[in-house]
Amino acid sequence: MKKTYNDFIKLPDSELKVMQIIWDMYKQNPKVDAGSMMDAYPHVIGHLKLTTVLTLITRLNEKGFIKTEKLGRINYYIPVVAEEQYKNNAAAEFVESVYKNSPINLMSALFDIGVINQKDIEEFRKQILNKSNNINKINNNNNNEDE
């Protein structure tokens, strides 16, 4: 398996919840602040005090996941690490540490417990073939340019 997560930092659940909110809200509006996060996601972080949310945001900033932009009296939070990048790295790290670098064993376990079914496997197969075909096209184009 190709390692793409050399500097991967796994976030604790509390920080990950806040980061997921930032990713979600930023897609809709680049003006993400702590108050609007608490208002928009009361079921996720509404039980926390504002100071706790701000502490989690500070940790995300220190870890390089977000940057802060101050406009007037309000701090806005901008994701620096892309959601897909984090998910891909977390998945790779999980497969390496829990399944000893065997994605097949992970898929088998998911199938055994009913998380995925035959239809999911077929859809996954199609996606992999499509990605593989796209990679082959790119490689062929690069080879043609070299000639």
What report would you give on this structure?
There is one protein chain. This protein has 147 residues and is mainly alpha-helical. Helix content is 65%, strand content 8%. A two-stranded antiparallel ribbon has the order 1-2. The two termini are 31 Å apart.
Quick take:
The protein is mostly helical. The protein has 2 domains: 1-103, Orthogonal Bundle (Arc Repressor Mutant, subunit A), CATH 1.10.10; 117-147. It contains 7 helices and 2 strands, in the order H-H-H-H-E-E-H-H-H.
Radius of gyration: 20 Å
Name the structural class: mainly alpha
- Give me the CATH architecture of the largest domain, please: Orthogonal Bundle
- Low-confidence stretches are none
What's the quaternary structure here? single chain
Question: What's the average pLDDT?
Answer: 91
Describe the protein's topology.
Blueprint: H1 13-28, H2 34-40, H3 42-45, H4 50-62, E1 66-71, E2 74-79, H5 83-98, H6 103-112, H7 118-146
Main traits of this protein?
147 residues, mainly alpha, Arc Repressor Mutant, subunit A, 65% helix, 2 strands
